[in-house]
Amino acid sequence: MKIRADLLRVAHVPAMPDGTPVEPEQQPAERRLEGEVGVTGSNGAPLGAVGGAIVAPTTAGDLARSARGFCLGCKHFSSEDWKKVVAAYQFHPDAEKREELNTLRSALLTTGNVELQNRHLDPEGDMDVEHALSQMGLCRVLTEAHRDVTGVHPISCCPPELCSQERPMGAYEPRDKAVERSGSEMYDKILRLAQGKGE
């Protein structure tokens, strides 16, 4: 599916049918990816494309938290360390190290994450796995926790095992003040929409 639009929608429902107020964080929200799906005939010949959409329902709170917690903006994300790992594993004398890299390539190619796939398209519209691999980073927190090299994609967030009520974004810490400010602005904008105060 070729993505033409990536839309975030946040509703504002003042109250439940029984009159209970709905908090901004609990307001219904969705991420909608709109695009075109290629259609082929039984002989494999392309017939054209039809419009389609993938809708992921969520809440305004979850949407706001994820918008400011992407790995790319985290101080624990290191693209330089990751490049060293890939260079070392690429032609490593230990076949297991080379196999780890190939397993990761396979996982990237078969991911169900449409956003990730569409960030790494080649000119023919297929996923460029080497480009995806090169854009990843080493997560220092997960590498230490797993005691093994752990790479993450820039649009990933901390896994659930690192998140808690006290730390809803897990080990995420903004890399610098600019990243923190940008994430806070997006967070506030989404919650304003949830309060019916936005655009």
N-to-C CA distance: 29 Å
- The radius of gyration over CA amounts to 20 Å
Strand content: 15-25%
Low-confidence stretches: none
Overall 3D shape:
flat
Please identify the structural class as seen in this structure: alpha+beta
* Chain-averaged pLDDT: 83
The beta-strand count equals 6
Count up the helices: 7
Top keywords for this entry?
199 residues; alpha+beta; 2 domains; three-stranded antiparallel β-sheet; 7 helices; 36% helix; 22% strand
What's the SSE blueprint?
Layout: E1 2-10, E2 28-40, E3 46-59, H1 60-67, E4 77-78, H2 79-90, H3 95-109, H4 114-118, H5 129-135, E5 137-139, H6 140-146, E6 151-152, H7 177-194
Antiparallel strand pairs: 1-2, 2-3, 4-5, 5-6
Helix pairs in contact: 1-7, 3-5
Give an account of the 3D structure.
With 199 residues, the protein is an alpha+beta fold. It folds into two domains: 1-69 and 175-199, no CATH class; 70-171, no CATH class. The protein has seven helices and six strands, in the order βββαβααααβαβα. The strands form two sheets. The protein has a three-stranded antiparallel sheet with strand order 1-2-3. A hairpin with a 5-residue loop joins strand 2 and strand 3 (46-59). Helix 1 (60-67) runs antiparallel to helix 7 and helix 3 (95-109) crosses helix 5 (129-135). The longest helix is centred in the C-terminal third of the chain and has 18 residues, at 177-194. It is flat, with a radius of gyration of 20 Å. The mean pLDDT is 83.
